[in-house]
Design a protein that fits this description.
9 strands; two-stranded antiparallel ribbon; single chain; 45 helices; globular; mainly alpha
Length: 958
């Protein structure tokens, strides 16, 4: 059994403390002179080795700090050694106890050898204590400013310390540096060319188009081009050129959806990030914008709950056709309304901020990077982004939106036709300049390489690297140039580019000193992760190597890890750089293809023999890369495996990419859809149609449904066609489409699809006042679900019948009784897997079964969306208005649910809904709801309110 090192150290330290302390009584004791001395020696060190810590004046270390500082420190584990760090309270006490700046300097100088190799607060402290104050410049890096801030915070506690810069100034400068850091990181290397594109961006941002009023709406500008061409770098260069000295020439927000704090599936996170960045640019409005950013994050939390509810309702066939699609549409509508409201409020603040800054009508530039995943037909994210941009432009007319992604995609929500800039290769002069800035010193060599390589930035950087490895020797350089094919034009250019990149990569690999590592490098490209074990069991044999021991494999792994073409992929794991893999995996076949395919087959065997989702994902990845039948690969799919395969479509042939897209979600380019198996095409198209219907674009959905027929009997497109026809006002055609699909689904053994079609048929019959047919369909669906052992599906069918009967002229309480019985007999563990269905059932039957709501609260709780709070708060207000005597009891319950948070929330909340929000945040909302059900409320408002809150966002009431 292995034990975590830090845990072992903590256990040892605790036992040692116990042994060192005297038995009995309080072990608080005065700090000894030696103890205080070691504290002071360590108080300006970020981390230190206690064995080597010296007191001022000591000629050698004694190790006394180990025992003296044991209680004052926490340990920080490293792979090779353990270091200590003073706890905050001990550090502050030591700093305040110093005799003055001179004592601090002596303590710090005594331990210079403990300074980290890289710059840190220690060096800054020593500079100030030695009388060499640092100048805060606009070009200081975020890391340097963070070190300065930490040093000043420490030194400000030292008695008698003076001459320190203002902490607030440092913090503001640091925040601005962090704002620009992503942009500076993108342009940290050489940037050459793109003069015309930069001029076009300046023209787009700086002035209205000819013949267009100054404040007239301006369409977004989309920058697109192949991977590695420099889209993100161009955007960064433009923003940096417009912000000399990190002072923006106009308000802007740079949104990169590759950042982990942003989600392309949650447009509200874009609004939060924009508000945060604007707060840095306009400090007077920082608090207001930060509050809006926090509100956006709360909205994101509520929307995740809503999306999960929609997903649950779509998961069951018997809830998908009615509750599922209704809730989808409601969710998209409410999300759009909430997001447009938030962005309008951010824009209102920006209008005021610009006015106070006395700037004359500057443009607001919203730059959106890495947007490809949202750019597909029917994308709800793209539709909501259009709504956000329109709302923002209505308040701030001089909005300019610049998007980096694919070429503009048609979308029904599109308000304007976007402008676009397509990036091509760098011009010849810029290509030569880039080569020279990357280390090719001879202009003639740079010119010759550019003539062969072309203007793709990544190809040029690979060429510069290959030239550097050639060492400047004339013969080797000429050999490199001759190895590259002469460039052709038009049709062949892309093929030539890939060929050139492959040759350059091979030239770079040829300079690897260790022949065994060189033999591993190229075939290893097909692996998404390389470890010592994978070298031994997967890579070695196909590469002609005998690696029989783990030690030998580790030696090879360590050398492979040092190559600049690989990057870390976790503990004891590396992978080839993503940009290199993306190129090399697209290259046409070569004499090494057989080796690489052998590696992939061995990878399948290796991962198939292992447990866990990550191993299964790698197995699926390599099966698809080997062009195995998508249907057999689909059988290997497990819930949760998808998160390890996001983005892998780009490394697959169209047929394999379609299977991944069908499972992962999102859209697929035309070439993938054309190469997809019929079943995968139908799943992708069905999701697109679902998205279009959820956004209200029925005609666009119908157009999509006209493609690639006939469909397979089990396809969800049959039900979607009927749904679309119904929404288009063609009820008879809708019922006919359902009727025609039920029989084939039954004969094909597709029980789930048959259930969905029967529920949809019942709904269409009910809408046509054909209640007999509707009842027949629902009873049949329930029987089928019971017959195949799907209890939750049966409950869904019975719920649909109960909702239908509840709306009849003469309600039949027997259906509710049956539903209540089914809810009681199902195990809680089963019910917990479908919270949305359980809530819908409880809210339907609570009048017949008073304990249903309490049961549901215990098993699945209330939805955590804001709508839940509004409904519950409204019910409590109505009940207390009708019976004022209830108010005291209700407020007592609220106070108990919120606890101390009510006093800590910046004053008393303004209403019941705000108090309920605090209860939700504290995790006591369900307990409060159960207490509310015990209130003697003769009006029934409270119970009805809890029931309504149960079904919040789930497609309306019964």
């Amino acid at each position: 059994m292995s034990t975590d090192r830090s845990e072992t150290r903590d256990v040892f330290a605790a036992r040692l403390r116990q042994e060192l302390r005297r038995p009995g009584g309080d072990h608080a004791h005065p700090v000894s002179k030696t103890h205080r001395g070691y504290r002071e020696a360590a108080c300006l060190l970020t981390r230190f080795d206690p064995v080597r810590l010296r007191l001022p004046g000591e000629d050698r270390t004694t190790g006394g700090a180990v025992l003296e500082l044991l209680d004052d420190c926490s340990t920080v584990g490293r792979k090779d050694r353990c270091v200590w760090a003073l706890k905050a309270e001990a550090r502050d006490a030591a700093l305040r106890a110093l005799a003055g700046p001179e004592a601090a300097r002596l303590a710090l100088e005594s331990n210079v050898e403990q300074f980290p190799d890289e710059p840190g607060p220690e060096q800054v402290c020593l500079a100030y204590l030695s009388g060499w104050p640092l100048e805060i410049t606009d070009r200081a890096s975020a890391d340097d400013l963070a070190d300065l801030l930490q040093a000043v915070l420490w030194l400000s506690l030292v008695p008698g310390m003076s001459g320190l810069p203002d902490v607030g100034d440092i913090q503001r400068t640091l925040e601005r540096a962090r704002l620009f850091h992503p942009l500076e990181h993108l342009v940290q290397g050489a940037f050459e060319g793109r003069t015309s594109e930069l001029d076009e961006l300046r023209g787009y941002v700086g002035s209205p188009r000819t013949g267009v009023a100054r404040n007239a709406p301006v369409p977004p500008l989309v920058i697109h081009g192949p991977g590695g061409i420099g889209k993100s770098t161009l955007l960064a260069k433009f923003l940096l050129d417009s912000s000399p000295g990190r002072t923006p020439g106009f308000p802007f927000a740079y949104i990169d959806f590759e950042r982990p704090t942003l989600s392309i599936h949650e447009p509200v996170t874009l609004i939060a990030e924009a508000a945060r960045q604007l707060g840095i640019q306009y400090p007077l409005f920082r608090a207001e914008l930060d509050t809006l950013a926090d509100e956006c994050q709360q909205t994101a939390r509520s929307q995740r709950e809503g999306e999960e509810r929609v997903t649950q309702l779509h998961r069951l066939a018997t809830t998908r056709a009615v509750l599922g699609r209704t809730s989808s549409q409601e969710f998209q509508l409410m999300a759009t309304e909430r997001e447009t409201d938030l962005i309008r409020r951010v824009a209102d603040v920006l209008v005021r901020a610009v006015a106070v800054a006395d700037r004359e009508d500057p443009p607001f530039v919203l730059v959106i990077d890495s947007f490809e995943a949202a750019q597909y037909r029917g994308s709800p994210m793209l539709g909501r982004m259009w709504a956000i941009c329109v709302a923002l432009q209505n308040v701030y007319p001089r909005l300019r939106v610049i998007v980096s992604g694919r070429a503009p995609v048609d979308h029904p929500a599109r308000a304007m036709t976007p402008l676009d800039i397509e990036l091509h290769d760098l011009d010849p002069q810029a290509a030569v300049s880039l080569l020279m800035s990357c280390g090719v010193e001879d202009p003639e060599v740079a010119q010759a390489l550019a003539d062969r390589v072309g203007g793709h930035p990544l190809s040029l950087k690979l060429a510069a690297r290959a030239a550097a490895l050639a060492g400047g020797e004339t013969g080797r350089m000429e050999d490199l140039i001759r190895s590259l094919p002469a460039r052709r034009r038009d049709f062949f250019r892309r093929v030539d580019q890939m060929l050139v990149q492959g040759i350059l990569y091979d030239r770079i690999l040829s300079h690897i000193a260790n022949e065994d590592v060189r033999r591993l490098a190229r075939p290893g490209l097909v692996l998404r992760v390389i470890t010592p074990e994978i070298i031994k069991d997967v890579l070695a044999e196909p590469c002609g190597l005998r690696v029989e021991s783990t030690d030998h494999a580790r030696v090879l792994f360590d050398e492979l890890s040092c190559l600049d073409l690989v990057e870390p992929a976790g503990p004891d794991a590396v992978r080839h750089r993503a940009d290199v893999r993306a190129i090399m995996l697209r290259l046409p076949g070569s004499d090494r293809t057989d080796v690489m395919r052998t590696v992939e087959r061995r990878a399948v065997e290796y991962y198939a023999a292992r447990h866990g989702l990550e191993a299964r994902a790698e197995e699926i990845y390599h099966r698809l890369r080997l062009n195995e039948n998508p249907r057999s690969v689909q059988a290997r799919w497990l819930p949760g495996v998808g998160r390890f395969l996001v983005g892998a479509q780009q490394e697959m042939a169209p047929r394999a990419a379609a299977l991944l897209t069908a499972n992962l979600g999102g859209g697929a380019p035309d070439r993938v859809m054309e190469g997809a198996d019929q079943e995968d095409w139908e799943r992708i198209a069905a999701r697109e149609v679902e998205d279009l219907l959820a956004q209200g674009f029925t005609q666009a959905a119908y157009a999509r449904l006209g493609e690639r027929r006939p469909w397979t009997p089990c396809s969800s497109l049959h039900a979607l066609l009927a749904e679309t026809l119904s929404r288009l006002g063609r009820p008879e055609d809708a019922r006919k489409a359902v009727s025609n699909a039920i029989g084939p689904a039954e004969r094909a053994g597709c029980a789930e699809r048959q259930l969905e079609l029967l529920l949809l048929s019942a709904r269409l019959a009910e809408e046509a006042d054909d209640l007999v047919s509707a009842d027949t369909d629902l009873r049949l669906a329930e029987d089928i679900a019971v017959g195949i052992g799907h209890d939750l599906e049966a409950m869904g069918a019975l719920l649909a019948r109960a909702r239908m009967v509840a709306g009849a002229e003469i309600p039949d309480p027997q259906v509710d009784r049956e539903l209540a019985m089914r809810l009681r007999v199902l195990p809680d563990a089963v019910l917990a897997g479908q919270p949305a269905l359980v809530r819908a059932v409880a809210s339907q039957i609570y009048a017949e079964d008073p304990g249903a709501l309490d049961h549901a609260l215990d098993v699945v709780g209330l939805p955590e969306e804001d709508e839940t709070l509004d409904i519950l708060g409204g019910a409590m207000s109505r009940a207390s208005s009708e019976r004022p005597g209830l108010l005291r009891d209700l407020m007592g319950m609220l106070d108990e649910a919120v606890g101390p948070q009510r006093q800590q929330a910046g004053g008393s909340p303004s209403g019941i809904t705000d108090i309920l929000r605090l209860a939700r945040d504290r995790g006591t909302l369900d307990v409060l709801a159960r207490q509310l059900l015990t209130v003697p409320d003769e009006s029934g408002e409270i119970a009805a309110g809890v029931a309504a809150a149960m079904r919040a966002g789930a497609g309306g009431g019964p």
